[in-house]
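Tutorial handout. Part one gives the primary structure; part two gives the three-dimensional structure as tokens.
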Amino acid sequence: MEGIIAGALAVVGTLLGSVIAHHYQEKSARRAEARAHSHQQQQLLFDNCAAFISLAEDYRRAQYDRWSRWDADPTSEEATAARAEAYRLYVETRSSASRLKLISGQEDVHRLADQAGVVLELTSAIIRTDDRADMLQRGRVAQAACDAFVAEANAVLHGSAP
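Part two.
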């Protein structure tokens, strides 16, 4: 009889050990999955921020070119081409800023997307002047807003307060 009890206890102990080990393996797998998802989301945010910054820089350059071509000869083919290129980059930059809003429901990411909108607005304003000095000043303001976006993106990506 002792052999049967000892055998039963061994079986119960083995089963209990298996259940406990399975529980901890599942818990460990969930944690690893959560870390992988978090890393994937952070990489997605990084990629979208980098794309926005690149487009914002290109759009600002296109706005300078558009203003200069218009100032030289508003009826020229170069002025028309510069305008078309600026509009193309505006649409791409705006789409990039909108993608930032879609990445996450987190408040800090939405603030970052709002800041991208400010960069876009300030960059669009570069051409709304007849004075070269004012145009360049507007460009500097847009550049400062872009630099502030980069600092905010860095804070959001690395979890530090801006």
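Part three, for discussion. The two ends are 72 Å apart (CA to CA). The chain has one domain: 41-158.
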